[in-house]
Amino acid sequence: MRRIAGITPEKLNFQFHLRNQKKLFEDYFRKNTLYKLQIGAQSNSISDWLNVDIAPKSREVAYMDATQTFPFEENTFDFIFSEHMIEHIGFEAGAFMLKECYRTLKRVVKLE
Fold this sequence. Notes:
This protein is of the alpha/beta class. Helix content is 33%, strand content 12%.
C-alpha cells in the first residue's frame, strides 16, 4: 500500500531522521558544555559529539545537509570534524560547507 502511495522505505527513513533531528540537537546542547560537530558521520558516532549526515545510518546520527546553511547560530561549536566527506560534493558546495564551518565555529581570542 505504501508503495502505491509513493512512500518508499527510503522516504520513510528520511522522514524519521528529519523528525529525529530536533530532538538530537536539543539533547546534545542540553547535555554538553563543549560543543563538537562531526559532519558526515553515517553510522560512526563519536561519543560527546553532535554527529550529523545527509543519510544517517543510525538513530544517534542527526540529519543535516552540509551543502546547505547549517541550522546553527554563529560561534556555536568549539570543534568541527569531517573525514572522507568533502570529496563527495562539488567544489562550490565544498567551499560553501567550509564557510559554514567557519561561521559556526567559535572565535578564539588570543591574549598577548
